[in-house]
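stage 2 :: seqdesign
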């Protein structure tokens, strides 16, 4: 079992190294100073391109991803709900309670308000 892990690990490292080498060999090489400039919808930027954004945007995006991933977990459960029985129903209800509590906490903290 231990030698199988070593073989899989070395194979993984070799495949990653090969992919990086091949990408380096076949990638186009163009050293144009415009490549380092910021690009925003075809319009040249004014001022510095490094500006701070409100943390609310990040919180909103993280909440969206969190609930999106949790929806992905709910779909397989919905497909086999009849086979799981009462134990599966209790587990998913516990999962949903945690989701609702997380949503209520985010709502109370104002993370869902777009100011």
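stage 2 :: out
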């Amino acid at each position: 079992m231990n030698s199988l892990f070593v073989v899989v690990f070395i194979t993984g490292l070799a495949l990653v190294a090969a992919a990086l080498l091949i990408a380096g060999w076949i990638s186009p090489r163009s050293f144009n100073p415009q490549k380092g400039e910021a690009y925003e919808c075809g319009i040249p930027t004014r001022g510095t391109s490094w500006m701070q954004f409100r943390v609310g945007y990040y919180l909103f995006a993280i909440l969206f991803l969190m609930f999106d991933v949790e929806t992905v977990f709910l779909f397989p459960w919905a497909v086999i709900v009849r086979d799981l029985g009462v134990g599966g129903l209790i587990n998913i209800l516990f999962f949903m309670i945690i989701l609702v509590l997380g949503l209520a906490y985010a709502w109370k903290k104002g993370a869902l308000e777009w100011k």
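stage 3 :: structure notes
- The helical segments are 2-26, 55-79, 81-109.
- Residues 23 and 29 are 11 Å apart (CA to CA).
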